[in-house]
Amino acid sequence: MNFQRDFNDLLNALLTDWRNQFPDADLSQGSLIYMKSACLASALWGLYKYQEWISKQIFPDTAETKYLEHHAWVRGLSRRSGETDEELLARLLEYIRRPPAGGNKYDYQKWALEIDNVANAWCIPLSQGPGTVDVIIAADETVTGSEIPSSHALTGTTTAITENKLVDGAADFMATGDGGPVRIGDIAVNDDTGGQAVITAVDNATQLTLDTDIFSSIGQSYTLKSLTAQVGEYIDDVRPVTVSIVRILPPAVTLQDVTMTVTGTVNKEAIASAITSLLRSLVPGQTLYLSRLIAIAIQEGATNAAISAPAADMSPGPYEMLRPGTITVS
């Protein structure tokens, strides 16, 4: 329903009613009837605008922040740390369009996205046979510094005490092996007290900054929860009991070089940038087609394009995604 009514339309409708009832009445501007009608038209215009505002709050895609959050709350969704209205709306619409279905692959993707700093998720059902599921997740690199999620299982003891810090002289929080390094958004747990804090900065190899001061003495034991571990804990609480094994995995990344020669008057930097954007958008298992690379060059104004690398379409495995390596356009 259209709740838009122009003030002049309302005023003219009121004056017409007066004219129909009292043909000889003075309806000129400045007359008593005109002024009363103008006041009533103004009030009615305000009511129409209020009805229009109410109608927008009924639907999530037009609701203001407060009511968008209420729509999400009704369905058990809450705003993630740093999430925008657009991101919350996208999650809510996904929930509405694909409601919980007893643990199908879309449920696992939605469950993974409930965790802060998870940017995307893909589910591989029956990955190791009946009763098994693999979930591949990508991190929000604007927060964590990399789209590859942390997957470490680090433990240790504190060797010094500083407020809002975790200090372990024997640790190497920046090591890249075994699912490292530690990233912003990982969770530190004081195993002695049960206290938890979010890691807000990796200061150096032996020191982390925390959002809460949870360590009070030297020698306290700690565990660091990676992003994959956080997702795994959450999914374990909501998944069907018939699923016996759920693995939360980071994607394997393969850097893909592209070497292209173009003809015609064209912005080669723009072609390279567009190829980079394409490669950064590919999801695990998605094929890179040479025809798409050529199409990019043509769209940017090239009359022809020849590709020497890769030599053929590149088809990664289901756990692997292609990312830009060296992009050369000459």
Short synopsis of the structure:
With 330 residues, the protein is of the alpha+beta class.
Describe the structure.
It is a single chain. By secondary structure, the protein is α+β, with helices and mostly antiparallel strands. The chain folds into four domains: 7-58; 98-147 and 227-250, GMP Synthetase, Chain A, domain 3 (2-Layer Sandwich); 153-225, Thrombin, subunit H (Beta Barrel); 252-329, no CATH class. The chain has helices spanning 7-21, 32-58, 65-74, 85-97, 105-113, 141-144, 227-238, 268-281, 290-299, and strands spanning 118-125, 132-139, 153-157, 165-167, 187-190, 196-204, 207-210, 221-225, 245-249, 252-263, 304-309, 320-329.
List keywords for this structure.
330 residues, alpha+beta, GMP Synthetase, Chain A, domain 3, Thrombin, subunit H, 4 domains, six-stranded antiparallel β-sheet, three-stranded mixed β-sheet, 12 strands, 35% helix, 24% strand
